[in-house]
Specification:
The protein is of the alpha+beta class and about 180 residues long. About 35% of the residues lie in helices and about 30% in strands. The protein contains four helices and seven strands. Strand 1 and strand 2 form a beta hairpin.
């Protein structure tokens, strides 16, 4: 098989993989044109606190701005086919989002951005990618040792997140979808 036919076959395979990806991942779009790849996404995520050491708990108040902010960054398009085949685990896409979030937090004198929502768009010429993050800037204030009340509140929130429904009464439901 000559090189031109091989390249056409490879391009068709990548296009088919991109179409399959677009069907499986609602917000992800794959565009193949002159070996440049495009990626568009809109994402919202939440903060999941994780304890990383056993220490005496320190608590702080979180002051959240009532004004939502938006910040955009534009990057040269360095996406590869590998990034598009698994965008949720792409180091490049993770970097674009992380950098944009970091700049938004820094420029707004915040410690974190609550409820960040990302929108990623590839330019029509496929040369640049713009990442936009929107959320509520927040800062930590009033750091202090956890009181007994704070510890009880922390325990309740961990218990609530770890609990599963435990029905006290067994119930059986029989469904007959077709009556004849």
């Amino acid at each position: 098989m000559d090189t031109k036919k091989l390249m056409i076959a490879a391009a068709a395979l990548l296009l088919a993989a991109g179409q399959l990806l677009a069907q499986n991942k609602k917000e992800h779009v794959v565009v193949l044109e002159n070996e440049k790849y495009g990626y568009d996404e809109a994402t919202a995520s939440s903060i999941n606190p994780v304890a990383s050491a056993h220490t005496m708990p320190v608590v702080a108040d979180l002051t959240v701005s009532s004004t939502r902010i938006t910040h955009k960054e534009t990057f040269g398009n360095a996406l590869t086919a590998k990034d598009l085949l698994d965008p949720d685990h792409s180091a490049e896409i993770r970097y674009l989002k992380s950098y944009t979030l970091t700049r938004a937090v820094k420029l707004n004198n915040a410690d974190l951005l609550l409820v960040p929502v990302y929108e990623i768009r590839t330019s029509a010429d496929m040369n640049t990618i713009t990442v936009e993050v929107t959320g509520y800037p927040a800062t930590y204030t009033n750091f202090r040792k956890a009181s007994a009340n704070d510890l009880q509140l922390i325990k309740q929130s961990f218990d609530a997140s770890a609990s599963t429904p435990n029905p006290t009464k067994k119930q059986t439901t029989i469904i007959n979808p077709v009556e004849q």
